[in-house]
Amino acid sequence: MFFSSFLSPSPFTSLLILILCIAGVDFVYTTPAKIGQGYKLISIDKSPDGGLIGHLRVKEKNNIYGPDIPNLQIYVKHETEGRLRIHITDAEQQRWEIPYKLLQRNTPPSLKQNVGRSRKNLFSVAKSEYSGSELIFNYINDPFSFFVTRKSNGQTLFNSTSDDSDPYSNLVFKDQYLEISTKLPKDASLYGLGENTQPHGIKIYPNDPYTLYTNDVSALNLNVDLYGSHPMYMDLRNVNGEGNAHAVLLLNSNGMDVFYRGDSLTYKVIGGVLDFYFFSGPTPLAVVDQYTSFIGRPAPMPYWSFGFHQCRWGYHNLSVIEDVVENYNKAQIPLDVIWNDDDHMDGKKDFTLNPVNYPRPELIAFLEKIHARGMKYIVIVDPGIGVNNTYGVYQRGIANDVFIKYEGKPYLAQVWPGAVNFPDFLNPKTVEWWGDEIRRFHELVPVDGLWIDMNEVSNFCSGLCTIPEGRICPNGTGPGWICCLDCKNITSTRWDDPPYKINASGIQAPVGYKTIATSAVHYNGAREYDAHSIYGFSQSIATHKALQGLEGKRPFILSRSTFVGSGHYAAHWTGDNKATWDDLRYSISTMLNFGLFGVPMVGSDICGFYPAPTEELCNRWIEVGAFYPFSRDHANYYSPRQELYQWASVAESARNALGMRYKLLPYFYTLNYEAHTIGAPIARPLFFCFPNLQELYDVSTQFLVGSSVMVSPVLEQGKKEVKALFPPGTWYNLFDMTKAIVTKGLNYFTLDAPINVVNVHVYQNAIIPMQHGGMISKEARMTPFTIVVTFPSGLNVVEAKGNLFLDDDELPEMKLGNGYSTYIDFHATTSNGTVKLWSEVQEGKFALDKGWFIEKVIVLGTNGTDGAFEINVDGQPIEDISKVQFSTSEIKFIDSLEDEGDKKKSMMIDIHGLELPLGKNFVMSWKM
Q1: How far, in Å, CA of 174 to CA of 167, rounded?
Q2: Hey, how many other C-beta atoms are within 10 angstroms of the C-beta on 435?
């Protein structure tokens, strides 16, 4: 929530950015001359843990961006079969690294003082390569460089050598400037390096600026560092028709510019260490599995969070909220969660209630009513704690000494309440205090989750500020985000004015601009300069711990600012977008990027945050947003109301698209389990499932939900059809399963898409669990199941697979073995004229206790049924199948590119009247 963030960092500068971006002006900065001659490897040995440890000495000192660090230590370790680590730091002094307790990982060997000088020219490692299961580390002594190769095909994945013709330097390592580069093949497709809004789609585009530094600049600004910092990229290469993916993570929280030129990539970092992790893949799914295994698996989300959410900044009082809930119900549009922005607060102060507009007795009565129905309630919490001696949260914060300091005093900033201090979540005492404040608030208002916003961290002022005397700040007039404190710039330290200027905010803004002064100090002397981009991450961890400690329930947290590992604790929305067709399109790329980053629960503000969306745009946006992993309509204080029932046509689109989402909730929730166990994104680019098809590497206007459901939305004004790209195989229309597309190759099809229609298709060889749907996930969850089996059309011997995970979603852990979960694998085959469908159940008791059962099976792509129907449950035949009924429909092939002679008659078989308990193994078969 921050309307002014499109005017941030200042009304003039951000408006200038916007105008220049619209005009197509790129912010490109000339590359300086090469810096120095790099380093020389003077010793290398085996480390006690089986890795390598070496020492580097600078070849020629210079003072560009400060003096060189003369001696470096390099540590290399194959940590797993698919993960290689290369860690480079000062050999003589400890440097800032992301706290090992915050992001848990192995600690490199301790530094040995002056070891570079004492072990001069010692090489006990005979070969210049160090091989693991799939990755090989190779090095050159002078000037030192390394390259990482793939063992299976010999490809070079990373190469830090710098030739005379290269526009970048050899390794540079100074206190406040680190530079390292890699050569890349021109046909490599790169993804990641976020968070930013990429106008060209999901692929990283050569010569666009990529700056990583958490910043409150709204998402409508293109190619600008936004709310999160994720210094990882995935590299997908197609060699001889085979796609191979790997990922590179530079684990560093300092500000950085990354220059991608198409054939090289250069990091320019203003502090910390070079701590590289390489993930071998070779498939995109394997990459994300390896990456999240290291940074932390995505948090399990409660079942209700996959329902639809409604929010607005500007629900002025409780009666408005009550009216919104009632109107959704009247319009028959599903709704699971109602949200409050800061409207519920007393003076915009965290953990308070406005006694007039949100009186506690009436709010509690409202919550009891919606909780009884299964609905949930979430409110916003900003990190800034109002400086107010009558405010208990502030008083307890001061008493516990929890705030970030500047020259020994809590650093003063301004956000919505006026003057604020910022909690230091690196301090264990702060984590305890924060948890206690959340507990106190939960006793006041039993919220079901928390929305942590403005945590980049955002500050309406810059520099060193004091509370003005003789005037009220803020005075209650105007927009509220104009700085009214008395402030002076801080530029006297090298932390506030570093020698190298990253392209912050797209305008090389000072690193402390509209945030905490970077010379401010955290717990144990850590500087804001180093810890800035992990603020939201550290707050997510503290909030997760607090919510889980309340009632032992699974937490739900939505965070604006994210870092490497944030997905282990929180969901994310993409911030302040604009109600434009372009922003609708950008939302797909941003969502897909966060799946790579290990934050699969992600979505954008449906219909746009501001200004007013058109009716047509809102129709098309809900048709996309209904299939975001996190699906929420959210609007700005100054925009007209845009709840989905405000227009009759949008309400119809919502009933249609959200109606299908609620039928697919078992599928979404099973993907939640898959994300939690192997890191798999819920929403995925098409190439994830078809990595050998190079034509899919840049598809950014369609996406997959899981591996089998493809969404092909309308993203342009005035269009009543959509040109969609279909990979080879059979694709069934999810809204009308008697319609299908069959293609032998990769082909475009033009699909009808009237205003209330979104095209969603299910791929062959899949088994999709569905339910009846409903107005709320709690009710939808208890309806009977339908199992949809998709065979490729016209083939005689085929198989299909699917799965289903069910559990008590209140439990903090999402796993089997606790007595409150069931997992089912479904299989189906056709061979010798017989169709066979069966289940393999693990821990069926939970599903049996819930009474869940299958009432219908839909099989697509066979040539009908010819009797001999049999059912076995737990090995026992069901004798009486008189209630079971069959119906068949011929499948119509839409605009098929195949010759009519190539197609065989294909049928949809609807088997209903079943009462198969989900918790028991069943086998069903019949003759074709």
Answers
A1: 19
A2: 18
CA pseudo-torsion sign 870, 873, 874, 877? negative
Marked catalytic residue, from 336, 453, 605, 809: 453
1: pLDDT strictly greater than 60: no
Instruction: Pick the catalytic residue from 456, 583, 674, 807.
Output: 456
**Is the Cα torsion angle 257, 223, 28, 454 positive or negative in sign?**
negative
| Residue in this structure with the two tokens 């692929």, named with its chain if needed | 203
Place 10 in a pLDDT band, splitting at 50, 70 and 90: very low
pLDDT of 14: 43
Question: Sheet containing 729-733: which strands, arranged edge to edge?
Answer: 683-684, 703-705, 709-712, 759-763, 729-733, 739-743, 892-893
Which stretches within 490-609 are classed as H helix? 528-531, 535-551, 581-596
d(Cα 40, Cα 532) in Å, to the nearest integer? 32
Q: Give me the helices (H) in 115-155, please.
A: 115-118
* Spatial CA neighbour of 117 closest among 36, 175, 38, 42: 42
Q: In what order do the strands lie in the sheet with 39-46?
A: 122-123, 39-46, 52-58, 71-80, 83-90, 274-279, 242-250, 230-239, 189-194
CB 589 within 8 A of CB 201: yes
Across 628-653, average pLDDT: 96
523-563 pLDDT, tens digit per residue, is: 999 999 999 999 999 999 999 999 999 989 999 999 999 99
C-alpha to C-alpha distance for 208 and 222, rounded to whole angstroms: 10
Determine whether 49 is an active site residue.
no
pTM flag (> 0.85): yes
Helix (H) or strand (E) holding 799: strand 798-807
795 — pLDDT class (breaks 50, 70, 90): confident
d(CA 241, CA 249): 26
Catalytic residue among 225, 424, 576, 583: 576
How would you classify the pairing of strands 178-183 and 156-159?
unpaired
Q: Is 195 a catalytic residue?
A: no
**Is 576 among the catalytic positions?**
yes
pLDDT digits 0-9 by tens, 30-77: 545 799 999 999 999 999 999 999 999 999 999 999 999 999 999 999
